[in-house]
Specification:
Shape: globular
Number of helices: 13
Oligomer: single chain
Structural class: mainly alpha
Distance between the termini: 17 Å
Order of helices and strands: HHHHEHEHHHHHHHH
Helix content: 55-70%
Strand content: under 5%
Length: about 290
């Protein structure tokens, strides 16, 4: 068995093991929303991947250099790509959702639901509102840094091993798939989706795998051409910020299987199309991470 395969198996055993172990314990104890174990799973989800990567490195005596630098300003074009392309595509998906379901558009931003207060902001100019939201998401550095935990584990550590072992296309697909699998204990308890969705929680779990494979392709592409996981964290942070807004301008305030958030099929449709285009181009890349692995 190759070193890469051993490292892949150990990492996945650790990160999936802790997620599913906590999920099972939470299931057999009290109500998830009041469950300490569930809170540990939810709050620690961004930390488990990087811890698993560090432990795997220690176990396998992996001395490869960490592929991380905060100096993203050295490639402003790539920073703009990471900060705004996901923004634009999510806005397009949101617009498409409200065109198809116009009665779901409320015309105001229920910011009180985020702040736990009774406060709303009327949206007089949807275009200006979208621009402001995209700018906030693009420069929300604390959230982007928070997502480093996941990205270091899945894209910085695991992805190069999978590409070296399986080739770039299969490696990228497997990376996104297992990233989605890791989310399933959270999704089972209603995280990111409404428990009222048809077929929930299983339909929600299936949709989350599609979401993670879509975002995984885009993040993997950026990792492959940059060799710097910070750009992936920017994409991840942007998606998490801008992606939370659509549900708060909807009437139902529910994350459905179709949208309005990018966790739904219509909401993420722009990202899916772009991910397909990137996936087709993947074999043509001479990736930096392949040459350094």
């Amino acid at each position: 068995m190759s070193d890469n395969k051993v490292q892949i198996k150990i990492y996945l055993f650790l990160v999936l093991g802790v997620c599913f172990f906590l999920g099972i314990i939470a299931y057999f104890t009290q109500s998830p929303n009041e469950n300490l174990i569930y809170q540990i799973l939810q709050k620690g989800f961004t930390v488990f991947p990087v811890i698993s990567a560090v432990i795997t490195r220690r176990i396998t005596k992996d001395k490869t250099q960490w592929r991380f630098s905060i100096k993203v300003w050295k490639n402003p074009t790539l920073w703009i790509f990471c900060a705004f392309i996901p923004n634009i595509l999510i806005v397009i998906g949101t617009i498409l959702y409200f065109i198809i379901f116009p009665k779901q558009y409320s015309g105001f931003f229920d910011i009180g639901s985020l702040l736990e207060k009774n406060y709303t902001i009327s949206i007089h100019n949807p275009f200006s509102f979208a621009i402001v939201c995209m700018l906030i998401a693009a420069i929300c550095i604390p959230i982007q840094l928070l997502e480093l935990g996941e990205e270091i584990g899945w894209r910085e550590y695991l992805l190069p091993k999978q590409i070296a072992e399986y080739g770039i296309r299969k490696g990228v697909l497997l990376n996104g798939f297992f990233w989605g699998i890791a989310h399933l204990p959270l999704i089972f308890f209603g995280f990111n989706y409404s428990s009222e969705n048809i077929g929930a929680p299983w339909s929600n779990m299936f949709m989350m795998i599609i979401v993670c494979m879509t975002l995984g392709i885009i993040c993997s592409y950026v990792m492959a051409i940059s060799n710097n996981v910070m750009y992936c964290a920017i994409i991840h942070g942007v998606v998490n910020v801008i992606g939370e807004i659509p549900v708060f301008i909807s009437v139902s305030h529910k994350n459905g299987l179709l949208g309005p958030n990018p966790t739904g099929l219509i909401g993420i449709s722009g990202l899916i199309v772009y991910a397909i285009i990137i996936f087709i181009r993947l074999p043509k890349l001479k990736t930096m991470i392949e040459s350094r692995n």
